[in-house]
Amino acid sequence: MSIIPKSWPFKRFMVQASGVIEVVYGALLLTNKGTRFVKSTLPAFLIAVFPANINMALKPSKLGKMPLPKWVTWARLPLQWVLIQGVKKI
Fold first, then answer.
1. DSSP symbol at 62
2. DSSP code of residue 88
3. CB environment 53-83: b (16+ within 10 A), e (fewer)
4. Long-range contacts for 16-22 (Cβ within 8 Å, ≥24 apart)?
5. Where are the domains of the chain?
6. How far is CA 9 from CA 12, 15, 76, 77, 79, in A?
7. Burial of 44: CB neighbours in 10 Å, binned 0-12, 13-18, 19+
8. Coil, helix or strand for 72?
9. In a 10 Å sphere around its CB, with 0-12 CB exposed, 13-18 middle and 19+ buried, how is residue 32 labelled?
10. Spatial CB neighbours of 51, under 8 Å, sequence gap ≥ 6
11. DSSP state, residue 4
């Protein structure tokens, strides 16, 4: 919840909902079912979570008690766009 911008409401719900969505996408891809659904909705999901990733890069983040290296939080931002482009090839 700490990576979600402070001004956003319902942080716990957003974390829980995004986690469920990620599991559903993973299950659909692993079972090779619903690829049309994943292909059409995953880009929007990745764009929706992008502000949290930006916030994580701008503000110090920790993984447990260990701080994440800044380069990791910044390197993942362009990877989000790579993933969006990769979805189109499913």
1. E
2. T
3. bbbbbeeebeeeeeeeeeeebeeeeeeeeee
4. 18/45, 18/49, 21/45
5. 11-87
6. 9, 11, 24, 23, 27
7. exposed
8. helix
9. exposed
10. 5
11. S
pLDDT tens, position by position, 73-85: 899 899 988 988 8
The confidence score (pLDDT) of residue 42 equals 92
Question: What does the pLDDT look like over 4-46, one tens digit per residue?
Answer: 878 888 989 998 999 999 999 999 989 999 888 988 999 999 9
Q: Give 54's contacts (C-beta < 8 A, 6+ positions apart).
A: 77
Q: How many C-beta neighbours within 10 Å does residue 2 have?
A: 13
